[in-house]
Amino acid sequence: MTDAFRFPAEWEPQSAVLIAWPHADTDWAERLADVEETYVALVAAITRFQPVVICVADDDLQTYAEARLRSARVDMAQVRFVPAEYDDTWLRDSGPITLRDGQRFKLLDFRFTGWGGKYEASRDDRLVGELSGMQLFHNYFVQSVDFALEGGAIETDGAGTLLTTWQCLHERHPDASREELTGKLAGWLKQQRVLWLDHGYLEGDDTDAHIDTLARFAPGDAIVYQACDDASDAHYAELQAMAADIAALRTADGRPYRAFPLPWARPVIDDGRRLAASYANYLIINGAVLMPAYGDPADDAAAAVLARAYPDREIVQVPCRALIWQNGSLHCITMQLPAGLLG
């Protein structure tokens, strides 16, 4: 049988979004009530357009989460709970990276190391294997890859081009050259090209510059990216340099990408620590783009930029200020499942 698998873009049809419900044994314990509000709002937004699969640590947590969602008038016909063990809820990085060949699916199970050993992640690293034994998926197989890679570190246009950052991949694999990493990523993810950004970072991000906090592909050879227009801000020079990196990139047929810069939110400081309030950390689903909102005047301006980049989708703001306390945002807690994968 020929291997014609490819890595679909996030804006291609989906069967569901996969998340994990926060609980008191995760790092959310200190602010659990606040983050639960974000999860309720997120599930309510997703289920307007498509199903959501929610990992829960035990039956009691499922009962509690279901009660919270019913009280918010969520369409429970669109919700499916599955039991799973997890250290935390960042499923963008611990969940499956799915390739497809028609109606066949390959779930890539890369090593998850807690972002280079920063946090305990042994249960998260087993999550893909655990999910694969639940009759959750259809017509698939799992390929385990002994290589540290997180889903938030890679971005594809669905047509053979991958976008990533040198800082993150170099931090995970300091002895590998760019050429070696390019070959590995292209081989496993079925890409014809790998584009690298050499600049870009956010204070309060502990992923070593995941691409999904900085720059995202959009349909029609476009890149949406987090800009900074405040020359007094510590991020200004680096994000200006990243914008120049993006301007120098070319499409597969040699044209510049259409660029959509996102506005810069005011600094969010928590106990003296700057948090990473990135608008680039949005989630694309069937018929909509769910964007993180931070209670900032720039929220509506960011929604307007996304409306131009995704003119055929509704832009839905989800309150995510609680998420950035733990160094991530909306995209980080989700993983889309391509259409046809869900059993």
What composes the largest sheet? 4 strands, mixed
Top-tier CATH class:
Alpha Beta
Q: In the CATH hierarchy, what is the architecture at level 2?
A: 5-stranded Propeller
Name the CATH homologous superfamily.
Answer: L-arginine/glycine Amidinotransferase, Chain A
Q: What portion of the residues fall into strands of 2 or more residues?
A: 25-35%
The total of beta strands comes to 18
Strand order of the largest sheet: 3-2-1-18
**Are there runs of 5+ residues with pLDDT below 50, and where?**
none
Provide an overview of this structure:
This is Agmatine deiminase family protein. It comes from Pseudoxanthomonas mexicana. Keywords: Hydrolase. It holds the Pfam family PAD_porph. It is a single chain. The protein is globular. With 343 residues, it is of the alpha/beta class. It has a single domain (14-338), classed as L-arginine/glycine Amidinotransferase, Chain A (5-stranded Propeller), CATH 3.75.10. Helices cover 28% and strands 26% of the residues.
